[in-house]
């Protein structure tokens, strides 16, 4: 009885982590949800989105479209471009991408200093448990695990909270100038299933947090901030045409 009581006390002492799991939600809707939770709540959150549609280019808040995107093919193929509220690189996401986002109070993880390197170390240890037994994978600042890219990262630090989003590529995406196998590997070649990865993340979280599954409807109904306006935006066709025209003008000059 004493041992059982100690187990319950230990579990109760863990900070609460509210978990939202989704599948196939458009990345714009996902980012709006993350930004809302970050800016209007003080809770710890983990948001997992297994795949997204349609295929979308996602850019960091300070990325320059003219330097990072081939605009004419994007306009021709009608590929959406989303500029998120946080920093980070530019990536194409689709059904082969699994998103894992952490929003944490600065006091949630004992001993964790709210600096990017410390947050990277913590998340690297968490993902290390998920990948244990599936090769030498180590989370690094450039989004690499082992010798290949399988993820992109975005970290932001605010007054009371920190935010980290990881996009795990389960299938390869191509860069035209290089063979994709030169710089990408597919996680499905190492893990038995997508659910094995997401279940592993949740299990690893459960070692540090009291994880509470929460559905989207509950999240939105709990949020009474009707004045919230997300800064994450989808670039319009007019925006892209204007950027393309400006770029062509500079080339002619």
Automatic annotation (TrEMBL):
PANTHER family, alphabetized: BIOTIN/LIPOATE A/B PROTEIN LIGASE FAMILY (PTHR43506), BPL_LPL CATALYTIC DOMAIN-CONTAINING PROTEIN (PTHR43506:SF1)
Record gene name: gb03099
Higher taxonomy: Eukaryota, Viridiplantae, Streptophyta, Embryophyta, Tracheophyta
Residue stretches making up the BPL/LPL catalytic domain: 28-108
Annotated protein name in UniProt: BPL/LPL catalytic domain-containing protein
Gene3D superfamilies: Bira Bifunctional Protein, Domain 2
InterPro entries on file: aa-tRNA-synth_II/BPL/LPL, BPL_LPL_catalytic, Lipoate-ligase_2_inactive
Pfam families: LplA-B_cat
